[in-house]
Design goal:
Layout lengths: L2 H22 L11 H10 L4 H8 L3 H10 L1 H27 L3 H10 L33 H15 L16
Length: 175
């Protein structure tokens, strides 16, 4: 913004402030009683903060919201102010990402990266399979040393919670 434009903007705002004081002398509670240019200037001066704008204009927040909903120009001003805030947030996010912030990276992947398949996975408790005791009625004294070794290995795997598979073939069956 050039210096002459800035001076003109300050002069315009000063004029609107004087006009707003004149309007404030009247008792009012609805935003429709205020000229749109003054509302537009207040929205811009307050960076789109509706509560601050309604307080500055001495109107109720619902009446300001209604007027903004019905007036395209005011809606565009509000949208532009909020877009500027989003742009600032994105610039801050970019700065954090460039400094390799883990939280910024995680946030970006969870929000913007969803379209690329990045999703937040909730930690789940590991599924514990219940062990089933099988009573086979086998006399351990009749097992060969190799069969005892296999049984011992299976029991050790069971203790370590490692997945295991029991091979039931004709070789392991005791006559």
């Amino acid at each position: 913004m050039t210096e002459s434009n800035r001076q003109l903007d300050l002069t315009k705002r000063a004029h609107n402030k004087v006009r707003l004081k004149q309007i404030n002398a009247k008792v009012r509670h609805h935003a429709k009683d205020i000229p749109l240019l003054i509302i537009q200037d207040e929205l811009q001066a307050n960076n789109g903060d509706l509560k601050k704008t309604s307080d500055a204009l001495h109107v109720t927040l619902p009446s300001l919201n209604q007027l903004i909903d019905r007036n395209k120009v005011l809606g565009d001003v509000l949208l532009a102010q909020r877009s500027a805030l989003v742009d600032l947030a994105e610039a801050n996010l970019r700065t954090e990402l460039e400094s390799r912030s883990w939280k910024a990276t995680q946030f970006t992947l969870e929000t913007l990266g969803r379209n690329r398949g990045y999703i937040k996975k909730e930690d789940q408790a590991p599924v514990r399979l219940s062990t089933t005791t099988v009573n086979t009625g086998i006399d351990l004294a009749k097992l060969s040393s190799e069969q005892l070794k296999n049984l011992s290995d299976i029991m050790q795997e069971q203790k370590d919670d490692k997945p295991h598979m029991i091979d039931i073939t004709a070789e392991t069956v005791i006559p």
